[in-house]
Amino acid sequence: MSYAESPVRELGPEECWALLRGDELGRLAYHLVDEVHVVPINYVVDDGELLFRTVAGNKLLAAALGSEVAFEIDWHDHDHAWSVLARGRLRVLDEVEEHRLDGLPLRPWVATYKYDVVGLRPTVVTGRAFELDRGAGGTGVVAEVGV
User: Fold this and answer.
1) N or C: which end of the chain has fewer CB within 10 A?
2) Residue 66 burial (CB < 10 Å; 0-12/13-18/19+)?
3) What is the spatial distance between Cα 147 and Cα 11, in angstroms, rounded to a whole number?
4) What is the pTM assigned to this prediction?
5) DSSP state of 58
6) Range list of H helices, the chain
7) What domains can you pick out in the chain, each with its CATH number?
8) Distance between CA atoms of 51 and 44, rounded to whole angstroms?
9) Between residues 56 and 145, which one has the greater pLDDT?
């Protein structure tokens, strides 16, 4: 992959959703009272909504309050990278909706019981792809600190 005019390329909505569907771990950022939290969650995409399980605690409280959140996934290798950001409000799914997880590949990474299902239906999904320049003769600018 080579970007003709810039090492940074905006990803379209379809590309962002394809990357979200192809991953299973991301970081959820939310504000609760006077603290900002960033936590890893494993998730699954279903019908334009990111779903994850949780237990009683800060994430569930943030969902019950309908908190605005940001959710991010990314990837890189030696030459390329991408990042996708989804923003919206959390919500707790009721018992009737929880069946949506039946048959979906959402499995906890830690062997704990997580009974509550939380959803994030993003209002904004954006992403960027990057062509990295890690060579010794790169054109990147190096800032001098304390000069």
Assistant:
1) C
2) exposed
3) 37
4) 0.82
5) H
6) 13-21, 58-64
7) 8-131 (2.30.110.10)
8) 5
9) 56
